[in-house]
Design a protein that fits this description.
The protein is built from three helices and 14 strands. It has 326 residues and is α+β, with helices and mostly antiparallel strands. The relative contact order is 0.11.
Length: 326
């Protein structure tokens, strides 16, 4: 054997006459193996396959090809054997086991907040998504089998939990092995997918902070501290609403002053227009007084907003929490 190339050496010479053919047995050696069941719902959803757990103990490389399977002297099925190197193992399905029926029930994924950490104004949430699949296997054959079950494996992010360890892991499935006695057997597989995301608490609106408090993920002391911080943030929001109203009023006054000045320019020196001019000038004067008051209010509100914002940031920055829910 050189690399993936191999050859068979006949122990006894074989003579084949011209224009004749012969069927020459190359390997006449026993191998280790047993009959098992193999279930893969993507191959056949309701019934497992009978398979030979083939262990190549012949010491030779076995060329792939069709295989006829016998139990005693009875024909039980056909299989395709892939090329097997010495000491290599392979499950070789050859027939459907109709006396065994498999029903699987896949639950909807459930999200569960597993751990919450708050530190330096950041909240990191670790969420576990858990999906449970239960295989109900009805074995009416009256005999006990060794059963191999291939369970789909979506990605490396999914891990198995609270389940016996798979004997093999490939890119597409986990392979589990268990004893299958007669009658009904249940086999449950739990999968877990963990995600983490971080929120900057200082950048959240009040309603988002309130939602965090309402979820009761935190302990009561932390929730109360967050309520106190939320009160400061709500004060910031109220002050900003007042500043918006002042800005809108100032814009309205500026537009009105522009209209009044246009009217003043259109007035002449007639005595009949004097009263209107005086009234418009009085309005401009009152508006200027109001603009000065708005500027003063705006300054006070701006200072109050910065104080409330600083208070909020300080309270949020002091929050610490590390909760593990198991």
């Amino acid at each position: 054997k050189l690399g993936d190339l191999f050859e068979y050496q006949l122990e006894r010479p074989v003579t084949i006459r011209r224009n004749q053919s012969a069927l020459v047995p190359i390997v006449l050696k026993p191998f280790n193996g047993r009959m098992v069941l193999l279930h893969n719902r993507n191959t056949r959803p309701e019934n497992p396959m009978r398979a030979v757990e083939f262990h190549n103990t012949t010491g030779l490389t076995l060329e792939g090809g069709p295989v006829t399977v016998l139990e005693g002297s009875s024909y039980v099925g056909e299989a395709m054997l892939e090329t097997l190197k010495p000491d290599e193992k392979r499950l070789v399905p050859y027939a459907v086991e109709l006396s065994v029926r498999v029903l699987d029930n896949v639950s909807s994924p459930v999200d569960e907040a597993h751990r919450v950490v708050i530190r330096e104004g950041r909240m990191e949430i670790e969420t576990r998504r858990i999906m449970t699949t239960t295989y109900q296997i009805d074995n009416r054959s009256g005999r006990e089998y060794v059963c191999y079950l291939d369970h789909p494996r979506d990605s490396n992010a999914w891990k198995w939990i609270d389940t016996i360890e798979p004997i093999e892991t490939t890119e597409n499935y986990w392979r589990f092995q268990f004893a299958l006695p007669p009658n009904m057997t249940g086999f449950t597989i739990k999968q877990q997918y963990t995600t983490r995301h971080t929120q900057i608490l200082g950048g959240l609106p009040p309603e988002s902070l309130q939602a965090i408090i309402d979820q009761k993920t935190l302990d009561e002391a932390t929730r109360q501290a967050m309520r106190t911080a939320l009160a400061s943030l709500q004060q910031v929001t109220q002050i900003e609403q007042s500043l918006v109203r002042l800005d809108q009023e100032r814009e309205t006054i500026h537009r009105e002053q522009g209209r009044i000045r246009q009217n003043l320019e259109s007035l002449g020196d007639k005595s009949s227009e004097k009263s209107l001019r005086e009234r418009l000038v009085k309005t401009l004067s009152d508006q200027e007084d109001r603009l000065e008051a708005i500027a003063a209010e705006h300054s006070r509100f701006t200072t109050a907003r910065e104080q409330a914002r600083a208070e909020f940031n300080e309270r949020i920055g002091r929050l610490t929490f590390d909760g593990n829910r198991g």
